[in-house]
């Protein structure tokens, strides 16, 4: 590909995305569908503005590689354990049930049983990129729907490894070994199956060993240079290197990137890697979706439109039904199960890889491979529409019940405080305010939480407090304090920023997840923040001091002193919180100084302390402790 051709393709693809995605978003279709439609329009089978989409697809597939690497970084043992039911339960049942149903349908349509099983395994895959992007845009990524969908997608990603070994066993013709050629030169091409398997296992072992024992000293060495661009280049080099290694042994590059991410999930450099690679993910994923649209062969569609449409509809209905049954089996409620089913109804990126591999292994013929590729591409294009349609269908009935709540009539008088988020954090603060005679208006966006609280006699209004019109209706222009206690860290920042601009006289107090989130909230306009676990951890540490033999008076003094020093450190480091290296170095130095001061002060207290310290329950100590908190 010459330079002029490359520039032309770059111009067309970028222009198509920039024009189509905002239009699709405005129409409520989502960015993924915008990218797919853009690709269909400019691709070789429509306007033919870019020639062969396969040239760009090889580059755009790197977006999926980066996505799988970032997903792997999130797969920590703690997460696997917490989502074990969704991953190995719902995911395993969904994969088995979907394969069985699709294989049965394929056999009924006249396919050989081995080909039908292979097609079922390949079509059981769903699109990680489309599903996660759609759920993120609709605000469903965190919650039961996101949990079930992520668990199934993760199980499917893990299942790709054994599928490369299983599919050749279902071959009905002599292998063509086209799979490796499709993705570049492979060192194992032409080798016997057992040698290829050994090469694959050796490559995966090398990734695991290198990730655990070589990358940490390497990243420490690079971090010591304090050049962020070099760290970014190193992160990209790691992903590209692992992808290249997997390609050399005939495996999916995306699979290798996922494995590398899993190995590095417990590394202290995990957050830095995520931050540096994230910008490339969005751009390359968008390009990937455009090339998927451009690669849709309208000749295959025009040749058998009714058959193709029937198979696509059948595939999506059967996959949605299998996912619904799997989720219900593990006690997800009906609404969440239906949304999860609609989200996972399409074919996936790995289906393209597996179809190519299956063609080269003699599992499917060339005509069937083309047809299955078209089915997957059309189902991916239809997926955002199916998701939006299911969401609107499910929300129609609740919307009638919730319409009154969506713009509630606040009969609470002029509030002193508006509490946004009445969960386990917000309700404690709100109850304290109410117990002291202040008028508090409470808002929460979870219908389930509101129903539960109303059964206990709590009056909570339904609504998304990030909406300025709702805050205004709740009395934000008259209230003295806005207490932001929602558990969505990104939305909390947006809410603080919007409220600060719209109601400049309102005092905003916000719940923070951690130090970084606290700094972000302060920069967005919060007057004060409270890290949600700080006081609880401090109180538990104080009790531990007492159990270790310190007097209650000394334990309280130690906790108060720690709180004061930590607050000073927090305020001191605020100006450099956005500069990673400076912040880390300053934090380390300041904490060493803080530890020395604390030890010296506590040693002085031990020398001056009377033998009979007053009981912690003494009213004087309680008062002093309350004032310090």
Question: Explain this structure to me?
Answer:
The chain has a six-stranded parallel sheet, sandwiched between helices. α17 packs antiparallel against α19 (366-406). It has helices spanning 3-26, 31-42, 53-74, 77-82, 84-108, 113-123, 128-137, 144-166, 178-182, 193-213, 215-223, 228-248, 253-263, 270-294, 298-303, 305-329, 334-343, 349-360, 366-406, 426-435, 447-455, 468-474, 489-502, 515-524, 534-547, 552-573, 580-608, 619-628; strands spanning 417-420, 440-444, 461-462, 481-484, 507-512, 528-531. It is globular and about 90 Å long. α24 (515-524) links the parallel β5 and β6 (528-531). It has 629 residues and is mainly alpha-helical.
Structure summary:
The chain has 629 residues and is mostly helical. It contains 28 helices and 6 strands. The chain is 71% helix and 4% strand.
What are its keywords?
single chain, 28 helices, 629 residues, mainly alpha, globular, disordered C terminus
List strands and helices in order, with pairings.
Layout (H helix, E strand, L loop, with lengths): L2 H24 L4 H12 L10 H22 L2 H6 L1 H25 L4 H11 L4 H10 L6 H23 L11 H5 L10 H21 L1 H9 L4 H21 L4 H11 L6 H25 L3 H6 L1 H25 L4 H10 L5 H12 L5 H41 L10 E4 L5 H10 L4 E5 L2 H9 L5 E2 L5 H7 L6 E4 L4 H14 L4 E6 L2 H10 L3 E4 L2 H14 L4 H22 L6 H29 L10 H10 L1
Parallel strand pairs: 1-2, 1-4, 2-3, 4-5, 5-6
